[in-house]
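Q: I'm writing up a methods section and want to include an example of the input and output format. Could you take the sequence below and give the corresponding predicted structure tokens, formatted cleanly so I can copy it straight into the document?
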Amino acid sequence: MFKGVIFDLDGTLVNSLEDISNAINVVLKQHGFPTHSVAVCQSFIGHGLRDLVVKSLPKEYQNEDFVNRCLDEMMVEYRDNCTVKTKMYEGISDLLDALTERGLKLAVFSNKADELTKKVVKTVMPKWNFEVVAGLKVEALKKPNPTVALEISEKTAIAVADFIFVGDTDVDMLTAKSAGMHPVGVVWGYRTKEELTTSGAKFILETPLDLIKVL
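A: Here is the clean output for your methods example:
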């Protein structure tokens, strides 16, 4: 019987694409580089903001020092504007209510920087209690590294086998499998059903409340 659910954040609980795209494009404009469409930025999301910066820059500028500089600039821009257009996907509110009523413990594990992950959850989803909200603190521990997922299991005193891990990318499915949790993919996010299935999703959700059927 499932006792807990770990959610990815961007592309799973909230649609943050416009705010992320705007932030990286501000930085690119400052340096006179070409900007990217929302659709292109969408393909860059999933492996953390540093990875997004690398993919957004012209190849000849993808050296560590310049990437770090642009990442710092993006963090300044995004920190101030990470909840301007970001909002929950339709049906997420109902799902969180339903899970709370059933007594399941909720957590968030994102590759977004930890301070920004916490800010988005607190601002966009203040009504619900998440036992743990964890973003990226150490680059080496970002998903699909299962370390943080295992720490969430420890902190909540719920066995990994009793956790569902819900996300919209292959990274999330691989994290769930590595942690020994049940991988569940969502199709309203930033990746395709095919990618989720190929990377190990046991269930695919067409709408948020489909998760209740899984339970």
